[in-house]
Backbone:
């Protein structure tokens, strides 16, 4: 039994209810903010532990167990080993409803092969490995949201799925690996949400974009076979370094003269190396590596063919041979309009409209796109830059996260999850 008290013209009216009064939008927000603040130091400690002990893609065994144990401590029963090193748990709300609905929340937890130079007291203790993309912030924030949601499960109906994904940074991507390993065999979510920290955005702000948001990505691997020899007698060789140089220049036409002008595309050669030698030795082979990114599947395949024809054609014209491997990667990320509008509205209510931004297209890639292909989704951004401090970008050895963002993220994720369930179940009941 619950007694609710209301004031009306100085008279007190008591209403006796058979069930607890459910939170409204007005009182749910302060309740969540109070819970997020109360556990702030715990979430910070979780993040620092993961930052101190980073693990590379497909090797996140200790991280998986750390996350699973935190979930067990909250009374959940996580499944581990999904997609090798992934983890998932379910939470059912206690509020009764005839409509069944599932909302998934996802975070990633692999690190990068980067040597940290932040000087933080909790810097990486794993040489050459660092959480330089903020995945420790993502996972600890989702754990914080789970903690809040377990305390509020009497206030919502439906099911929440918590996905802790490995290997976001490495093909084929943890999202695809987990789905191939039966992630959604028991429950298929009706919608799914995730976020990424954004160093160029101040802490306290969030952003999102409807529709196409992040690019597809494919990795390119060239091997140019020439004929090595002495650097002083180049006429007796076929110099693969010169051939590679011409291929690099010719490939600029793929974007500048072949891509539709209104179609964002990026082709980057990120690495060139030979098979050894020294200043006066022409090598037999040269290897190159790069990426192609865009926002259209038809053009994506056309670009692959252009790259292949240019590479092999230039090499053949110069007396060499080129082998090209195109490693088909992540699709472009498509945010569902309704899900994204919901995140925008919920963030505006939770943080204030002045702290919510609409974002531009972004050429970075994200394997969350595999989830978004199958389930209505929204992938949004949370600022981590402390105003007045130097800016450090993602994938940099000096990336710093303003830890105030952890409290904000935990609260917003929890609020959006409850509102998503509440809104969708209400819509189903009305229909």
Residues:
């Amino acid at each position: 039994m619950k007694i609710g008290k209301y004031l009306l013209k100085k008279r007190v009216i008591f209403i006796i209810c058979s069930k607890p009064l459910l939170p409204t939008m007005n009182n749910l927000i302060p309740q969540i903010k109070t819970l997020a603040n109360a556990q702030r130091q715990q979430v910070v400690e979780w993040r620092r532990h993961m930052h101190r002990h980073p693990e590379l893609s497909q090797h996140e065994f200790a991280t998986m167990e750390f996350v699973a144990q935190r979930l067990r401590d909250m009374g959940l029963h996580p499944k581990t080993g999904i997609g090798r090193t992934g983890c998932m748990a379910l939470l059912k709300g206690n509020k009764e409803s005839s409509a069944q609905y599932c909302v998934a929340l996802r975070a990633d937890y692999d690190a990068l092969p980067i040597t940290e130079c932040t000087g933080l007291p909790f810097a990486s203790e794993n040489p050459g490995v660092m959480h330089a993309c903020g995945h420790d912030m993502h996972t600890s924030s989702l754990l914080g949201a789970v903690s809040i949601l377990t305390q509020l499960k009497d206030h919502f109906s439906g099911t929440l799925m918590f996905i802790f994904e490995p290997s976001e940074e490495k093909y084929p991507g943890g999202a695809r690996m987990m789905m191939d390993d039966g992630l959604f065999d028991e429950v298929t979510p009706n919608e799914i949400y995730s976020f990424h920290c954004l160093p160029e955005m101040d802490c306290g702000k969030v952003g999102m974009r409807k529709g196409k948001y992040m690019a597809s990505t494919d990795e390119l691997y060239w091997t140019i076979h020439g004929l090595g020899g002495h650097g002083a007698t180049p006429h007796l060789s076929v110099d693969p370094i010169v051939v590679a140089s011409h291929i690099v220049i010719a490939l600029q036409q793929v974007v500048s003269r072949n891509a539709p002008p209104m179609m964002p595309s990026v082709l980057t050669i990120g690495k060139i190396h030979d098979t050894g030698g020294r200043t006066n030795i022409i090598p037999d082979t040269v290897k190159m590596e790069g990426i192609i990114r865009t926002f259209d599947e038809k053009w994506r395949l056309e670009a692959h063919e252009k790259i292949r024809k240019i590479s092999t054609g230039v090499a053949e014209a110069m007396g060499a041979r080129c082998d090209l491997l195109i490693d088909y990667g992540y699709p472009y990320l498509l945010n569902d309009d309704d899900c994204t509008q919901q995140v925008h509205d919920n963030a505006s209510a939770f943080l204030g409209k002045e702290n919510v931004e609409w974002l531009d297209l972004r050429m970075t890639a994200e394997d969350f796109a595999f989830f978004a292909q199958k389930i209505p989704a929204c992938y949004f951004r949370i600022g981590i830059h402390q105003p007045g401090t130097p800016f450090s970008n993602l994938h940099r050895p000096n990336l710093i996260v303003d830890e105030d963002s952890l409290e904000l993220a935990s609260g917003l994720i929890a609020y959006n999850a409850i509102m998503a369930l509440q809104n969708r179940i209400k819509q189903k009941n009305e229909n």
Notes: Residues 218-327 form a domain with the Alpha-Beta Plaits fold (CATH 3.30.70.360). The chain has ten helices and 18 strands.
